């Protein structure tokens, strides 16, 4: 399994193939791999009964036919909702997946970047660890978050976890912060406009993977490839695949 240390960047489908399917659904993840992705990124929230639900927002309002906060709904209630029809009628009937369902769908060789959007809790940690162990995913999952304290809490409890630092501020500062934090960071996930080739070189030299988000335009994709990043998080895995193939 390769999760980024190679000459060409890893193609990471953002929320699956968000540009061509309803984000964070099993259909979007399957399509990402069909389009040439070698990894996927997804977002995780926690349901009222402690299940890990794949959804970007704290509410279901934007991406389903329902309303309400995920933290106040049970997994049974959440999975009755249609998470695909809002995007296009051919996706009607797609559900909000659980993280377990994604782990079942995606072969273990493929990297999954799990971004935690909900607050830290012991219950969250216990369920995440249980799933990583049950599906043998400790090596092929990178858990990222903008909440660096949350990453620290997870790493303290599970040191072998691969942690990815998401951020929108100065790249070099964050590389240093990643080193100084004691979190034992595996990867940096900068907003793509923050990176330059020297920054990337510096991070790689310090043993960090660099996975910028979310790059969709050809010129920006090209720039990231030239900067030597380890992977690119994109809504259009097919676009990046063609670029890397020289098409
Ligand atoms: O993980 C990278 C990217 O997904 C972070 O932003 O808002 O799309 O979750 P967002
Ligand atoms: Ca995300």
From TrEMBL:
GO molecular function, one term: phosphoric diester hydrolase activity
Family matches, as PROSITE patterns: GP_PDE, PIPLC_X_DOMAIN
Protein's GO biological process: lipid metabolic process
Segments forming domain GP-PDE: 9-244
Top-rank lineage group of the source organism: Bacteria
Pfam families associated with the record: GDPD
PANTHER family in the cross-refs: GLYCEROPHOSPHODIESTER PHOSPHODIESTERASE, CYTOPLASMIC, GLYCEROPHOSPHORYL DIESTER PHOSPHODIESTERASE
Protein name, as recorded: Glycerophosphodiester phosphodiesterase
Native source organism of the sequence: Paenibacillus cremeus
Taxon lineage: Bacteria, Bacillati, Bacillota, Bacilli, Bacillales
């Amino acid at each position: 399994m390769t999760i980024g240390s190679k000459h060409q960047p890893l193609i990471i489908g953002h929320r699956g193939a968000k540009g061509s399917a309803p984000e964070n659904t099993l259909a979007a993840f399957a399509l990402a791999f069909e389009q040439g992705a070698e990894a996927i990124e997804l977002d995780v929230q926690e349901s009222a009964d402690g299940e890990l639900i794949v959804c970007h927002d704290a509410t279901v309002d934007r991406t389903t036919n329902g309303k309400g906060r995920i933290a106040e709904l049970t997994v049974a209630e959440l999975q009755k909702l249609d998470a695909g029809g809002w995007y296009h009628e051919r996706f009607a009937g797609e559900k909000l997946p659980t993280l377990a369902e994604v782990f079942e769908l995606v072969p273990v060789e493929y990297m999954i970047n799990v971004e935690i959007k909900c607050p830290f809790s012991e219950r969250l940690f216990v369920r995440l660890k249980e799933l990583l162990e049950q599906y043998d995913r400790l090596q092929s999952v990178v858990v990222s978050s903008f909440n660096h304290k949350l990453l620290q809490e997870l790493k303290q409890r599970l040191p072998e976890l691969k942690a990815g630092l998401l951020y929108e501020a100065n790249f070099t500062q964050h590389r240093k912060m990643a080193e100084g934090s004691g979190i034992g960071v595996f990867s940096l996930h900068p907003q793509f406009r923050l990176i330059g080739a020297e920054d990337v070189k510096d991070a790689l030299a310090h043993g960090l993977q660099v996975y910028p988000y979310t790059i969709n335009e050809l010129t920006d994709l090209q720039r990231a490839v030239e900067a030597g990043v380890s992977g690119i998080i994109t809504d259009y895995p097919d676009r990046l695949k063609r670029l890397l193939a020289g098409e």
